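Blinded run. Sample ID left blank on purpose so nobody reads anything into the name before looking at the predicted structure. Input follows.
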Amino acid sequence: MLKNYKGYLQTDGYIVYEDFDNNPDIIVFNCMAHARRKFSEALPNDKARAVYVLTEIQKLYAIEKQLADNNITDNDKLQYRKGQALPILKDLGLWMQQAYPEVLPGSAIGKAIAYSLSRWDKLSLYATTDLLHIDNNAVENSIRPVAVGRKNYLFAGSHAAAQRSVIFYSLLATCKNYQVNPVEWMQDTLTRIAGYPINKIQELLPQNWKQNQSK
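Blinded prediction complete.
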């Protein structure tokens, strides 16, 4: 899928993605949410160190919220990140270098620090640009319904039933993307579709239905 891709690629720490470091057309950078999760898991092991890191990471997220809430973009966004986020990232990276020799490598906090420390440049890369995101949560949230339902989709009953389910999911996803109330759309569409001209049937699709409702 990425054979001819050129650009940035945001990933977790799965080792297979390191192969892209050898591709000059792809710049790999990492997801802060995955790093943060490691320290959340380390709270029972070393609360003081884990809380410190989580607090600093929360400051980074607060910066991103400030940018989004105030619609700060382009060069202003870059300069804000350089002035606010980069110093936090630099200090936190130095702290991890100093803390790692003090913990057991096999402990939860040791693994959390090692995970982030070995990827700190890639975790910090977003703050040197105005276009990259601190994490890929938006992508993960969009594919979560598929991941959660993956096993359930094995039991559609038949190939034809699976196809009908896909159509239904697609229509509901379209409702979501266009901020259409799915119940209102279905109630209106199901009462009219039987007598609707077949050559105009596309007018009942959620995105077109919404436009016609506003007329």
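Unblinding after everyone has recorded impressions. The radius of gyration is 23 Å.
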